[in-house]
Amino acid sequence: DVAAFSPGISGAQQRELPTNDQVLAFPTADAEIGIFKGLPLAITNVAGLDLLVSAAYVPSYDGDVTVSPSSHWQFGYGARLGLLQESLVTPGISATYLKRELPKTNITGVAGADTLRVLNAAVKTTAWRVVASKSLIAFGIAAGIGQDTYDQSADIQGTVHQTFNGIPVTGSSSLRANQSLTRTNYFVDLSLNLPLVKLVGEIGQATGGTVRTYNSFAGGSADRSQVYGSFGVRLAR
Predict the structure, then answer these.
(1) Per-residue pLDDT for 61 more than 80?
(2) Would the pTM of this model clear 0.85, i.e. be above it?
(3) Around 71, how many Cα atoms within 13 Å sit in the side-chain half-sphere?
(4) Cα–Cα distance, 26 to 38 (Å, whole number)
């Protein structure tokens, strides 16, 4: 809410910025394509290979703040290596590597004659996971650990109009912001196996890394540990 903050003319001011929690962000989908079933070994297979494809949809928004992505869709790619294929007596163990990114996006907030712009905001992530899973007829369980690396950048511009000693003054500033962050990720999945689909619920935690900010946030520090949950539907033939 850009209008909630009065711009000052006496230098930067540290403030606590309000934050809001959101249940849903934007739609994403993942798909895998089997390439190699793996080498047979006793009652299982090893070294199976799947290709991974992900898609994220970022909508435009025109309200108090305008959000304008360069494109609505952005795709990612990766691979899954089946270290051990699940069988009646053995769990499945796999390692995945996935690269994702969001489309470059411009965000503009206007309060009267004052303007704040975040231009060419880009987020790229690289993630790896090691997962062990076992299906128990109608139910399944999986647990894993991994690491996420975030590379982010944006051009930030601000323009304010104030009156100083009765004289209208216009001030502007711009900077290039870059950030790289690495976090560890732990998670547990529970699934319900139905004839044509699998319903999957996940809970996990992302932790680690350091984000230094000039302002503070009502919801906590930007690099705090984050507990998350998700629900998905997996289609299989």
Answers:
(1) yes
(2) no
(3) 8
(4) 35
